[in-house]
Design goal:
The chain is of the alpha/beta class. It is built from eleven helices and eight strands. It has a single domain, classed as Rossmann fold (3-Layer(aba) Sandwich). Helix content is about 45%, strand content about 15%. The structure holds adenosine-5'-triphosphate (ATP) and magnesium ion.
Length: about 300
Amino acid sequence: MTSLTNTIAFANGKGGVGKTSVTANVAGIAALSGWQVLTVDLDPQGNLGTDLGYTQNGDSDQGAALMAAIGDGAKLKPLRNVRPGLDSVPGGDLMDGLMTVLAPRLLDETAPATAIADALATVAEDYDLVLLDCPPAGGVLLEAILIAARFLVVPTKRDLGSLHGLVRVARSFASVRSHDNPDLEVLGVALFDFARQDTRILADTRERLIRNLAGAAPVFDTVIRNARKASTDMRRDGLLAFEYEEAASSALRHRVAERVWEHPYRFSSNGYSKSASGLAEDYQSLTKEILAAFAERNGS
Ligand SMILES: Nc1ncnc2c1ncn2[C@@H]1O[C@H](COP(=O)(O)OP(=O)(O)OP(=O)(O)O)[C@@H](O)[C@H]1O
Ligand SMILES: [Mg+2]
């Protein structure tokens, strides 16, 4: 078993470039649009569970089930319905041992490192879409993950470090594609955390990326805007951008309505930022681009 035809890995060799935020929001929007979606958190930081809120609810096993599946071939049982249509395999602290589990297999140069692909194959066919949130790694770990994927999306910021991270991914991509997984394709590069007003920086970054990629990968039209306050609140409260936007505007309605009656609110949304209303729109538009590219390349 090698690549899973419905699997997209979100990867960049650099940390903090939006891999998890993009994975969570694309997953939530795709699920809301009727796709059966599974997310898999391959990062010991476990941030995907925080963005989706299941960690705060006490539902994360910190990667125990995923490690058992990768190490011993146990069948995965994802958390069901973390959103309607969206299931999740949690990551977390226990994923720290992933390299130790993979090492014996990686040492055998005659066999491709299919441990992650094999673990995901036990559940992938139950879903239309499987999204892998990768750790900020390159090298053999990333390669073992990319063997499991059919497609790759590379989020990047504008700083040099993120762009170097992209080069690390490109190296792993080339190695995996030429050896173990010839089906692997880049769906595109996603620009993340750009100030809307900095149109010149955005244009320069896009142009430089397109030149450096030399046709090897498209750059998505959508840019995820900078929204620091909203993104901090979202991660703390386990909300996706569209949910945050909804909560922010209902808080506004609440403030008007509270003179008349009390509403029970799940979140202390009174401090939510209104200025981030475009963030949900950005994710909506990026998801549309990713799903269109996925459908086109997958022949569906
Ligand atoms: N639109 C945004 N604007 C500014 N900052 C953001 C935005 N969205 C998320 N962030 C913040 O940027 C940081 C990095 O985001 P994220 O965790 O998604 O990146 P990552 O690539 O998964 O990081 P890691 O490599 O550590 O897993 C987080 O602190 C997050 O809260
Ligand atoms: Mg992450």
